[in-house]
Amino acid sequence: MPKITVDGLEYNTEDLTDNGKAQLASLQFLEVQMLKLKNEIAVYQTARASYALALKAELEKVEG
Predict the structure, then answer these.
(1) Which of 13, 16, 18, 42 has its CA 20 to 30 A from that of 25?
(2) pLDDT at 64 over 70
């Protein structure tokens, strides 16, 4: 049986009402979107750090 755990309690998804199944689908969608955003933030932070290092190197050339 398909099960889901919410706040430490396990539920049989087959017992959910149509409304409950719709809410579960919404939660699953939001989880996927949140993971995508976390990945995008990680890429942004990596790119930002790289650009900052490159800028620092350019500034040191000018000052040096």
Answers:
(1) 42
(2) yes
